[in-house]
Amino acid sequence: MAVEAVKSAVLKTPTQVLGVEHALPGELRVLRAAERSLTGERRGLRAVLPFLGPAFIAAVAYVDPGNFATNMAGGAQYGYMLLWVVLGANLMAMLIQSMSAKLGIATGRSLPEVCRDRFPRPLVIFLWVQAELIAMATDLAEFVGAALGIYLVFGIPLFIAGLLTGVLAFGILGLQAWGFRRLEATISSLVGVIVIAFGLEVFRSNASWGSVAGSTFVPHLDGSASVLLAAGILGATVMPHVIYLHSALTQKRIVGANPDAKRKIFHFEMVDVMIAMGIAGLINIAMLTLAAAVFGSRGLTNAGSDLSQVFHLLDQYLGAHSGVIFGIALLASGVSSSSVGTLAGQVVMQGFIRRKIPVFVRRAITMVPAMVLIASHFDPSRALVLSQVLLSFGIPFALIPLVMFTRDKKLMGNLANSRFTNYAAYGVAAMIIGLNVFLLYQTLVRV
After folding, report:
1. pLDDT tens across 15-58, in order?
2. CB-based contacts of 264: which residues, under 8 Å, 6+ apart?
3. d(CA 303, CA 289)
4. In terms of Cα–Cα distance, which of 271, 323, 266 is closest to 294?
5. What is the C-alpha to C-alpha distance for residues 325 and 153, in angstroms, rounded to an integer?
6. Could you read off the pLDDT of 130-147 as tens digits, one per residue?
7. Any idea where the domains of the chain sit in the sequence?
8. 57-446 adopts what CATH topology?
9. Rounded to two decimals, what is the model's pTM?
C-alpha cells in the first residue's frame, strides 16, 4: 500500500517523473526524491543528489588503464609541460558527455537508437559493426589493465589474474538486478579508490606546485615528439563507447513527462557531468604530476612506458608501498572500466539492431580475446597503448551523429544546442578528429 501511495503521489504532481510504476523499491526512493527536487521541495545539494550517477559511470572511461599509460609517459618524458593538454581534454569531455546525456533526456532514446531511426539501414549496419569492434578493443585493453593490477598487487600469475578479473566484472554487472543505484554507487566507489590512491601518491611525490599551476594554464610544447604525445592525450580523450552509453544511462533513469521537466532534469545532470568529469580531470592531472615529480625530475624519460616498471620504481623512490597503491588504483580502474565497456557493448547492439544478449554472456564472450592475449604473453602495457590508437577509428562515427542530433530542434525541442554550443561542438569535433587522424598517421608511419 505504501509503495502504491508513493507512485500515485508522484504521478499527480505538476512536474511529473515517469517510470515509477516499473521501479524497484530502491529506485522508487530515488524517483520520489527527484520529483521533490523538480518541484522545488528539495534545494541545494539535496536537490542534486538523486540525479548523480550516470556521469560517474561514463567518467570511468576517462581514467581507464589507457589513461594511466598515456599520462605516465607524458609526465616522465616532458615533466609538467603537458598538464594544459589534460585540462583542455577534460573540458572537451564535459561538453561531449553533456550532449550525450542531453540526447537521452530529450528523446528518451540512446544515440544508437536515434541513429537506427534516422539513418539508412546500410549505414546503421556499418555503424553497428564498427561500434562493436571499437567496444571490444576497448574492453580488451581495460580487462588486461585490471589483470595487470591484480598481478602487480598480489603477485598472482597474469592468466589467473585475468580469470579473477572476469569474476569481479561479473559481480559488478550483477548489481543491476537490484536497480541502477547500486551499480552507480559501486562504480563511484571505485572511482573514489583511484582518487584516494593518486592523492596519496602526489602528496608523497614532493611535486613542484608552482610548475603544476603554470603548466596547467599556460600552453607550451617542445618539438614534434611533444606534439605527438599531446595529440595522443587529446585524441584519446573522447571515448566512443561512452558517448553511446551516456545517452542510454539518462534515457530512462529519471524521465520527465513534459519539456519543462526534461529541461530541469538536464540542468541537474549538467551538475553530475561537471562533478564527475571534474574528478576524472583531477585524477589525470594527478597521474601526470606524479610521473613528472618522480620520473621526469630524475631524467627517467622512459619510465612511464611500462606500467610494471612504474609499479617498481614508485616503491623504489617513494617507498611506503607506493607501488602497491598504484597497483590498487590500476585494478580499480580496470575492473570498473571493463564493466562499463560491457554495458556500452550491450547498448550498441540493442540500439543499432534491436538485438539483446544477456550481459553475462557478453562479458564471457569479450573475455576470450583478452585471455588469449594474456596467454600469448603479449606486453600488457603495449596492449594499452595500441588500444588508444584503435579508438581513433571510432570517434568520428559517434561524435558527428551526436552533434547532428543535438542541434536538431525538431528532435531535441527546448534542449537543442544553443548557437554557442554548436560552434563549440564543431570546433571540438574537428580538433579531436583531426588529432586522431594525425595520431593514426604518425603511428602507421612509424610502423
Report:
1. 455 554 455 555 677 778 778 888 878 887 788 888 888 899 99
2. 15, 38, 256
3. 14
4. 323
5. 8
6. 888 887 777 777 888 888
7. 1-29, 57-446
8. Amino acid/polyamine transporter I (1.20.1740)
9. 0.86
